[in-house]
Design a protein that fits this description.
- The protein has strands at residues 12-13, 28-31, 50-55, 71-77, 85-88, 97-98, 111-122, 125-129, 137-144.
- It has 165 residues and is mainly β.
- The protein has a domain at 26-81 and 111-146: YaeB-like (Elongation Factor Tu (Ef-tu), domain 3).
- It has a six-stranded antiparallel β-barrel.
- The chain is globular and about 50 Å long.
- It starts with 11 loop residues before the first strand and ends in a 21-residue tail after the last strand.
- The model has no long low-confidence stretch (mean pLDDT 88).
Length: 165
């Protein structure tokens, strides 16, 4: 079950830096049926409920051509996540791992990603299936699903290849 702010056995937190290194423009809000972190699914499902990506009007022109894609990658800011845990015990068994080896929303920069199915476009609103975040979550970006693209250039000497160490 999702927890709110407790630290489990084996977990470790750190003091957060005094300042931020960057800023973001939220491009809109995500509308979902979930109003509590305890009821929000851990992973979105492409057969899940239809949710709304509501872009602010001045970003609407950025949607031109998006209808050519069935699947989209949505990036969003997990605004209610804590940011200070570096070791976490997702199974609450005392076995903690580093935050960067987990897909937890509790991370230094709580950016969430979901691969969604585009259902409909209605002006600056995208209706999608596959979200897993709270209603009102700030929207960071929308992109075509990266698995739909071929590399632009052939492999070059020195490129990392699967299996390289």
């Amino acid at each position: 079950m999702v927890r709110l702010n407790e630290i489990r056995q084996g977990e470790r937190s750190v003091d957060l830096p005094d300042r931020f290194d960057a800023s973001l423009y939220f491009i809109g809000r995500i509308r979902t049926p979930w109003t509590s972190r305890l009821e929000t699914p851990r992973q979105g499902r492409l057969d899940g409920p239809t949710c709304r990506l509501e872009l602010d009007a001045h970003w609407a022109d950025g949607l031109s051509g998006i209808d050519a894609f069935e699947r989209l990658e949505v990036l969003y800011w997990l605004h209610e996540s804590r940011r200070d845990l570096v070791h976490q015990s997702p199974r609450n068994d005392g076995e903690a791992r580093g935050v960067f080896s987990l897909r937890t929303p509790v991370r230094p920069n709580p950016i969430g990603t979901s691969i969604v199915r585009l259902v409909k476009i209605d002006g600056p609103v995208l209706l999608v299936r596959g979200m897993d975040c709270l209603d009102g979550t700030p929207l960071v970006d929308v992109k075509p699903d990266r698995t739909l693209f071929e590399p632009l250039a052939p492999a070059q000497p020195g490129d990392f290849q699967v299996g390289d160490t």
